[in-house]
Amino acid sequence: MSHTRYAFIISDRTGITSESMGQALLNQFSHIEFKRSMHPFIDTVEKADKMVDIINQAAAESTARPLIFSSIVDKDVREVVHQSNGLHLDFFDAFISRLEEELQTAASHIVGNIHGITDEEKYHARMEAVNFSLAHDDGATDKEMRKADVILVGVSRSGKTPTCLYLALQYGLRAANYPLTPDDLGSTDLPRMLKPFKNKLFGLTIDAERLHHIREQRRPNSKYSSIENCRSEVREAESMFRQHGIPFLSTTHKSVEELAANILIETGIKRRS
Amino acid sequence: MSHTRYAFIISDRTGITSESMGQALLNQFSHIEFKRSMHPFIDTVEKADKMVDIINQAAAESTARPLIFSSIVDKDVREVVHQSNGLHLDFFDAFISRLEEELQTAASHIVGNIHGITDEEKYHARMEAVNFSLAHDDGATDKEMRKADVILVGVSRSGKTPTCLYLALQYGLRAANYPLTPDDLGSTDLPRMLKPFKNKLFGLTIDAERLHHIREQRRPNSKYSSIENCRSEVREAESMFRQHGIPFLSTTHKSVEELAANILIETGIKRRS
Questions:
Q1: Helical pair A256-267 and A160-171, crossing angle rounded to 10 deg
Q2: Which residues in chain B touch residue A3, judged by CB atoms under 8 angstroms apart?
Q3: What domains can be seen in chain A, in order of their start residue?
Q4: What is the ipTM of this complex?
Q5: Fewer CB within 10 Å: N-end or C-end of chain B?
């Protein structure tokens, strides 16, 4: 018998919501090691039966009861999982009956969203935003820069591209980005291409040591990646942001999700999807 | 007094988890109209106090009690929100004490993840994946195609690019994509560039009417966007997938999240982040 504490994360859909729920809860017990596994699309009694076999086998092999985090809309499927030999925490179980009581109406208990016209519109907004962000990556063109919701500005490798893509995919925003080159940084003036859009600019900065580390992987032992150059580029970029009143954030200790959410709050831009 | 049913979604972090939780629950009551608002980064008692003012004002204006969905780790902050005049459903409230009991240890109640070395590694994996996917978008290059975890194949506008980017951002996968052109579709043979990587291919298809609609927005009244051309391209692409045993999915009714999660399951590829 092992002491492994299994954690099963089960969903009737993609599992992205239940995964972040499960991880958020487990992160609250960071001193315990869990053996985590994800099981999306468990949406029939048959699939749930097989799931229970897997859970019960884990339960039989370990001295510790498995944990089961689930997000399953269908009551019958949920009930099957509930019969397994583990501690079962289901997200709908916890909330849906309290909501039914409050709203004095029954929940639909139907899996998935209704794919109506709103969804298609949102989908288009997202696709368009992604295409826009790709076309305006790395200062590629200023053709339709005026259509951008936000323009991220920062030195090479400061995290502009993934942040733009996340803003587009998650919030449907048209996010362009512009890399500050050594030429731009020589002057305290804003780069020519950016001048007409000063109120759309948002700066990204990064710890010089971290930037050095990232650039070294790209071009080892180059002037580009040297710690001296990284320090001076970061210093000059930040001083440009301050001089022109451009809000900015450091990407050093933030995930793309956090950066995107922060940019939304600080700029007050409304999401499109 | 209005009959508006307000729904406040509150989080001490980015709000992405609590948003998908709240939306999933509200979607179960699709016949009711809710006035939803998101409130990320509510992580101090002061911010929670202001939040309560907003909630109580909404409560005073409406005959229906506001709903409050929250994900707040800090007990004191949570307690403040709990004093508002609404139905408060907190995610940690619902689960953390049952977990503490099961694990016989106290939760840390600290907001956020620990940004340790693992996070930095994951971050690098993601960044690398995003850069790879950008470099290998739209069959741009086959230089390092062998390093791809998966290569999405489909006709123009079938949804390859956003799906690739999502696979990279969410799962840290190196996802390339290759557009099937009319030249490729004339033959039952696999395109030359793809032949060496047959086991990495995953097809995307789309409803011809939908494709027509999407392409019309790009090039109205063109051969490219005509319904006849869309029908024949889709038919030929699907027949290529079948002939070569390439697994494929339709993007017509699926979100990028669903597509990405399905591709992961069907291919058995392991995520890198």
A1: 70
A2: none
A3: 5-103 (3.40.50), 117-267 (3.40.50)
A4: 0.75
A5: N
